[in-house]
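Chapter review: from sequence to fold.
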Amino acid sequence: MRGLLPSLAFGVMGALAPFTCAFAAHATTAASTITVPMQVELNRPYIDVALTGPNGQRATAYAYVDTGGGGLLLSAGLAQRLGLKATGKPEHEDGATLAPTAVPALSVGGKPVELVDAHAFIVADAPGTLHHTDAEMMLPGKMLRDYVVVLDYPAHAFTLADPATFKSGGTAVQAAFGGGMPVVHASVAGKSYGFLMDTGGQYCMVSITDLDAWKKQHPDWPRVAGAYGPANMLLGNAETKLSMLRIGELQWGPFRIDDAGAVSRGVGNYERFMSGVVGVPVIGSISGNVLRHFKVTVDYPAKKVYLAGPASVRAGPSEASSSTNVTQTHT
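The token string follows.
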């Protein structure tokens, strides 16, 4: 059962402030491409999806898109509206009770979506929304592997396209795909590391081993004990034992991100467990507090990742705000 919820395992099911407005009920289509509104709250992307249960029951669900997620998760309330029932024995993972169920039919903006290797689970202890979010569902990016997925954070737009009819834009950055999840490489103080690209994470997460090493090597980089703001993902008392560091020099391809915040995770979470899942060495994740500055294109069939946005971004100190100091733009 381990590995269905890699993001949840590292505490990225963080709280979201209540939404004050609903999405506009419109979508633009061009051939086999669909673009719908995407809400970004606490650095995580949300879209509306339409679902149909096995007996024809229909429901619209508010879902967050998680490129680091393992299973299609449905709240108990959403499953009930769709007529879904458990098809196997419930399992327990990272504090959640998960019951396997049938995979509902899914569409985005009127476009039917064929999910790859789909497995669905009812989160039994989430009657309304998934823990600490406003979402009734989590949609893993790995199940969209037949498509090009564009998460345009600045424009608040989500695009799903068939690869044969879509031309990816932006600048390609070094990437590998393992277990259906994108792994990218970025340099910290001139040394390259592998990171899971995790849209489900509110805040970059890094193994405490590397975070502590960077603290010693760069005593001028701001740091604090505990987890605060978007880095606080409601892990309970464990948050007080974490630490945060502002990475002074993060270079991702041609893009420079100054003062990118990262929060610690336990030894082995990434360098052993997550590296085993993706088949590529990773020490952490690049998550929403960095991704929110860019238009991110994940071309799953071609196994490529593209970025478009500012060539230089100052991510801190107010990473929860929408303001950004930028210079030249790469497209």
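Two observations follow directly from the output. The first strand starts at residue 28 and ends at 30. The mean pLDDT is 87.
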